[in-house]
Amino acid sequence: MEGRRVIGWAARDVSAHLSPYSFTLRKTGPEDVVLKVLYCGVDHTDLHQMRGELMPINYPLVPGHEVVGEVVEVGSEVNKFKLGDKVGVGCLVSSCGKCLSCNSNNEQYCNQRVFTYGAVNKDGTPTHGGFSSAMVVHQKFVVQIPEKLAPEQAAPLLCAGVTAYSPLKQFNNSDKAIKAGILGLGGVGHLAVLIAKAMGHHVTVISSSEKKKVEALEHLHADAFLVSSNAAEMEGAAASLDYILDTVPAFHSLEPYISLLKAGGKLIFVGVSTKPLHFNNDELILGNKSLTGSFIGSMEETQEILDFWAEKGLSTMIEVVKMDYINKAFERLERNDVRYRFVLEVAGSNLE
């Protein structure tokens, strides 16, 4: 089927200012789903991408990779979805489908993965994200939104939520009490606290100052709060944690956090630093500790986190805004002036 004209909001250059942009969706194939975009999460990665800080960008760029929509058309071979279904699209819209990663349901590690925006579809057309009125996506890269989950609540789970869930699920249903550390209390960090608590872990939030202590303990119900700049607190917590999920997307010293891990503990990176991180490896060797990373999650895990959220009755902490507020929202996001995620109400916005 021929592509349709849609309206999105795009960045034209590294200034990252967004404004209306008309473009044509790629042709709809037999396994494609066309969705009307209802909501889209606003992620810090969007800002980096619009500024060209992560990879070379061909402008105009329509961001948005936490997309919740309603199915309005399906290809002739689509068997997972029907008209009217509430569905989600995360960070990826394609992969090679043949490699070891793809064949083991880890398509996020495929070398030929195609990102939801800022990339190129297999037919040579550019990918555009959920800051637009509609999208066309292969059914493999679409997930079902559970009926019990409000669509705006689901949006942040499609990137931030699965980014926290994927590395934490290895500690789920453990036969021992798990002591968790969550480093950083932003968009990913706050969801990680909720996930770890729902998994039954004892959760310590680690932050550079006391300013988020009340939020961590009273709003998110963490079990403990640790100020990394307080030497006495850090020393008292030495060798106490089974894992630390490092969500900080900026340069920071690693050694203070490595010292918090028990023997055999893991420091897991999900936040990308723009500068190299340094550490001495003696603590790793002497304590059998490891540094590891995790990138978003698979499509299978994306469905899992949505079902997990609905089953546990969890709530994302969001501020819903219209498209005409998006540039202001990014200004606030950069100042960390949001608790904890912006969600765009795309269908309720005037996109023209």
From TrEMBL:
Name by which UniProt lists this protein: cinnamyl-alcohol dehydrogenase
Family that this chain belongs to: Belongs to the zinc-containing alcohol dehydrogenase family.
Lineage: Eukaryota, Viridiplantae, Streptophyta, Embryophyta, Tracheophyta
EC number per UniProt: 1.1.1.195
Gene3D superfamilies named in the record: Medium-chain alcohol dehydrogenases, catalytic domain, NAD(P)-binding Rossmann-like Domain
Quaternary structure and interacting proteins, as annotated: Homodimer.
Keyword terms: Lignin biosynthesis, Metal-binding, NADP, Oxidoreductase, Zinc
Catalyzed reactions: (E)-cinnamyl alcohol + NADP(+) = (E)-cinnamaldehyde + NADPH + H(+)
Pfam family, one: ADH_N
Cofactor(s) listed in the protein's UniProt record: Zn(2+)
A GO MF label: cinnamyl-alcohol dehydrogenase activity
GO terms under biological process: lignin biosynthetic process
Pathway: Aromatic compound metabolism; phenylpropanoid biosynthesis
Family matches, as InterPro entries: ADH-like_C (IPR013149), ADH-like_N (IPR013154), ADH_Zn_CS (IPR002328), CAD-like (IPR047109), ER (IPR020843), GroES-like_sf (IPR011032), NAD(P)-bd_dom_sf (IPR036291)
Domain Enoyl reductase (ER): from-to ranges: 13-344
CDD domains: CAD1 (cd05283)
Organism the protein comes from: Gossypium tomentosum (Hawaiian cotton)
Keyword Kinase carried by entry: no
